[in-house]
Design a protein that fits this description.
The protein folds into 2 domains: 15-197, Up-down Bundle (Growth Hormone, Chain: A), CATH 1.20.1250; 285-513, Up-down Bundle (Growth Hormone, Chain: A). It contains 23 helices and no strands. The protein has helices at 17-40, 42-49, 53-56, 58-81, 83-100, 107-121, 124-135, 141-157, 159-169, 174-177, 179-193, 208-228, 237-259, 267-271, 275-303, 308-319, 322-335, 338-359, 370-392, 400-438, 446-460, 468-506, 519-526. It is found in: Membrane.
Length: 527
């Protein structure tokens, strides 16, 4: 936040520190988990309200766009009133809307409620990291950052198992109802774990124009990324409209902030070297994380016909080891240069992706992904912790909330850009592979006839009609095309990990005890 906006009140002191930390980390967990659960359970939600594929695609978009829209506002009000009030109100809003969402009778009602839930959960992550840095002594920052990374990774990769269990044993309603006890628990922890902050300063920077143009511009660009693959990108007038409007509003925001007497955002936080590169690496890492969490369900669902619970058996191997890796990553962050931890993690992510790319076949199931996903679990946790901690060591105390907003924007845009890129690449490469394989499948070809006869002998023993043989052959062609497109995507993800690795290598080492100009502050907090 700009230093000229107002005299910031003193940082909040926690009445029960561990309870306050639990509350903000719980907010990070349920925010990411809800977004992923909504994606996995989208077909069930669409079916319950009678929505088609195209209109139903806006259900998850409404939730995530609201998160992007509220990010600047959350940081602004959090800097004035403190995270306690804002997070309690956000938790209550999120809890109430989550309880009501399953009772929606039509799509418009559901979209409005999802948008309101997104506004509530969108306050959680921007304020979480700032709270961790302002309430914990610097000697424990490494553990706070590692827990922050653990929350994001854990919630991202257990969602398939959770959604599958809900659908199989309860109902899709619990995708949202689970947030009621979690949200109430978060609000209670905040109430008893964080003391009330002093009244706001008299001079408050009411940069409504800056907040509006920034939030709406980012939300429009995010909606374009989220819907682009469905409507074929620039061949759609909707995408053109979203992109033009989003870039125009962001341009207006930048020009306003650079010329305003009391701007809302201090661009020195964003432009101070090497912060742009660190934020870019966070986006790249989120791209690799969300891409692989998309590719495994894409392959297992499309080739093997696995359901969400069965896909979760694979993704859970990324989530469970994080509980141990998070502690080890924190220890290494305290004892070594965080660049080494990040580079080690990025190397493991690249190796895991290439292992899968070189060995993947259409007969793979959950067990065959085990080794590569264990490597990726270690790599993702180390990489994210190292990159975030490297950025944290360069922050001034007054920049904590601004960095939380920038981290949220990089995280959401990186993840969405990765999802959009990989889903589009997978679709295009699958179409290309299907076409090339299909060129070798011709009526009357001896190899084709032999394959159909073999299918016929098998299905005859199961009393199936003879016409099923061509359908089985077509299914095999689709499976091979999907396998080839998955291989191509894993290679692309590995390339992104290598790019992030090169960027991290050239970044200068961060001050081991925080910014040099503010070492007395850090030393005082440590004492």
């Amino acid at each position: 936040m700009s230093a000229t906006t107002a005299t910031a009140p003193a940082p909040a002191n926690t009445a029960i520190p561990w309870l306050g930390l639990t509350a903000v980390l719980l907010g990070t967990f349920i925010s990411t988990l809800t977004g992923r659960l909504s994606s996995f359970g989208l077909a069930d939600v669409r079916g319950a309200i009678g929505a088609g594929f195209d209109e139903g695609a806006w259900i998850t978009t409404a939730f995530t766009v609201a998160q992007m829209l509220i990010t600047p506002v959350a940081v602004w009000v959090g800097s004035i009133y403190g995270p306690r009030r804002i997070l309690i109100l956000a938790a209550l809003l999120f809890t109430v809307t989550s309880a009501i969402i399953p009772y929606s009778q039509n799509l418009p009602t559901l979209l409005v409620l999802m948008f309101l839930a997104g506004l509530g959960s969108g306050c959680f992550i921007p304020l979480t990291l700032g709270y961790v840095l302002r309430s914990m002594p610097p000697r424990l920052w490494a553990y706070g950052v590692a827990l922050y990374a653990l929350n994001l990774e854990l919630s991202l990769n257990i969602s398939a198992s959770v959604e599958g269990w809900y659908v199989d044993h309860l109902s899709w309603h619990w995708i949202f109802w689970q947030n009621v006890p979690l949200g109430l628990g978060m609000a209670i922890c905040l109430h008893y774990g964080v003391r009330q902050q002093p009244p706001p300063a008299l001079r408050i920077n009411k940069d409504i124009y800056g907040l509006t143009t920034c939030g709406v511009g980012l939300a429009l660009l995010y909606a374009a990324l989220d819907q682009g693959n469905r409507v074929d990108w620039l061949n759609s007038g909707l995408i053109w409209g979203l992109l033009i409007a989003g870039f125009f509003l962001l341009l207006c925001f930048v020009l306003h902030e650079r010329t305003a007497e009391r701007p809302w955002l201090d661009f020195q936080v964003l432009l101070r070297h090497p912060m742009p590169f660190l934020l870019l690496m966070i986006a790249l890492l989120r791209l690799t994380i969300l891409s692989t969490s998309f590719l495994i369900p894409y392959f297992l669902g499309g080739v093997r016909g696995f359901r969400a619970l069965q896909v979760g058996d694979t993704l859970i191997w990324i989530a469970v080891p994080q509980l141990i890796i998070c502690l080890l990553a924190a220890i290494f962050l305290r004892r070594t240069d965080p660049r080494f931890v990040a580079c080690f993690g990025l190397c493991l992510v690249g190796i895991a992706c290439m292992m899968t790319a070189y060995t993947l076949t259409p007969v793979w199931g959950s067990d065959q992904f085990l080794i590569s996903q264990l490597l990726q679990a270690v790599g993702q946790s180390c990489a994210l912790s190292g990159i975030v901690f490297n950025a944290v060591l360069r922050l001034r105390p007054q920049d904590a909330l601004s960095f939380g907003a920038l981290l949220q924007i990089s995280r959401l845009f990186g993840g969405e850009a990765g999802q959009a890129f990989i889903s589009t690449l997978a679709r295009v490469r699958e179409q290309r592979a299907s076409n090339l394989i299909g060129l070798h499948v011709k009526a009357g070809d001896p190899a084709v006839i032999h394959r159909l006869q073999g299918y016929g002998q098998v299905i005859a023993r199961h009393d199936q009609p003879a016409m099923a043989a061509p359908l089985i052959l077509g299914s095999d062609i689709r499976a091979m095309a999907t396998t080839q497109s998955t291989i191509d995507c894993f290679v692309a993800v590995s390339a992104f990990a290598v790019l992030a690795l090169f960027i991290m290598i050239v970044i200068m080492r961060a001050p081991p005890h925080g910014p040099a100009s503010h070492r007395p502050f850090f030393a005082r907090r440590a004492a």
